[in-house]
Amino acid sequence: MHQADARTLDTDSARTAPGVALRADWVAFRTIVMKEIRRFLRIWPQTLVPPAISMVLYFLIFGAFIGRRIGEMGGLDYMAFIVPGLIMMAVITNAYSNVASSFYSTKFQRSIETILVSPVPHGVLLGGFVAGGVARGLAVGAIVTVMAGFFIEFEIHSYAVTIGMILLTAVLFSLGGFVNAVFADKFDDISIIPAFVLTPLTYLGGVFYSIDLLPPFWRSLSYLNPIVYMVASFRYGFFGYDGGIPVGMAFAAIVVFVIAFWLFALLLLRRGTGLRS
Amino acid sequence: MTTPALSITGLKKVYAGGFEALKGIDLRVEQGDFFALLGPNGAGKSTSIGIICSLVTKTEGHVEIFGLDIDRHFSEAKRLIGVVPQEFNFSIFEKVGDIVETQAGYYGLPARVAAQNAEKYLRKLGLWDKRKEQARHLSGGMKRRLMIARALVHEPRLLILDEPTAGVDIEIRRSMWDFLQAMNAEGTTIILTTHYLEEAESLCRNIAIIDHGEIVEHTSMRELLMQLNTETFLLDLVEAQETVPELEHYDARLLGPETLEVTIRKGQRLNDVFARLDALGVHVSSMRNKSNRLEQLFVTLTQTHGSAETLVHASG
Lengths: 277, 316
Prior knowledge:
The structure holds two protein chains of two kinds. Chain A is mainly alpha-helical.
């Protein structure tokens, strides 16, 4: 049999065989995730070390040096109070920047074309890049948590809340990074949102202080900041202290945001925004 | 009639600024063909290929790959195509082996099969020894071959090459031709865009010429070449000549004392030229077509040292 004919039969049977497409999609998903993980591990001095150093400095300055004078915050030792927020901060910035820079580089180098010409469905492409961002966010989060262990002893109050919140947050900000990269035309465009939106929201998101301490106006304004809910819920997972934030509602709100961002990102891919002419 | 490898009907593309890159083209490439898509810059070649490969959104028309509509059978149609783009589009910091295996993963090939296919094509293209090196360490010719290996790793039935030999030296170009001819002989349909007309002439059986978004010629290479009105030959003479020998009805000129250029028009015969030269006492030691001359000499010299044979043997 001619080789071309043999391949015709292979293709036809592959098309009709149940589960084959699903298996192929799973392989494609795993391929993208592993490629993303390889990428951030290959450049570990840029991706894993700086956040660890920054967080150690935060622990030292705000926790050990200044924290001693502050005493307690929300019924917690100040060092303990800032630990969940700092972990969350590391996860947010790393998940976001991983997907934003990786997907933008893929566009810039035009290697995205190698995925676009392949049969990878849009959902698998999106899921792969998001999972890569989550992987880096969690890797950095784990490093920061280990670092925190050198400064304070802690036990996890609720593993479900802690893991659920960190995962959802990483997914949400990975999706945010993806959307940013889709619209980005130059490298500057992927640093604008982190610099002018993410950093202020994170610093004002109750990482270093309790929202309860703020005057009523600023407290009300802070409740519009989604990161407040993430940090407070994550802190609740650690120590059982929610600072007046309804944890269940926070979870629900983040799930809604994740779904909205996912659908928006899929729509962009389907339209080929920034990818197809 | 068998299902064509590629069938394009009424394909139209109007870009956002209003530029009409394709004006409703029809194109048919048969299974097993080695097909050339030629045209000047901006004629619509890359837009056509972009639409076939889902990199460009079409405005109107239908594209079928082996009978599968690319809109309705998105996934299945894509599995049948391999694309070698004009520009390098891989991360230069990735390892050669990873680039090829990753591409296999996008097509859903299990890791074992991906590794086997990657090895097969990296070996065929003379890159196996480079598999653990980052792509940035490869030469230009190696990068081109890497893109071909990557496009073949899922074993497509239709291989599309957009200017595959642009910027590649003659030695590598020749060896890539041999490799592609071997792939075609094994059953892979190949579509090629190129600026090198000699490349199309040497490799392709059928041809389409696109200009200003319209197909202006769609025929076999043989029929197209038969349309040529003139052909120029260079004759190396045994004795040096001071004046151009009188060849009635033929355009001739001396390029040097021992080199005569003769242009044969459609309907004229080379035999008559030789007969006339013989009658004039001018003897010819050798003859060649005017094109290819330097290239042929270069390949002959390099093949003498065996350096141009890597791909020739590997592709067999």
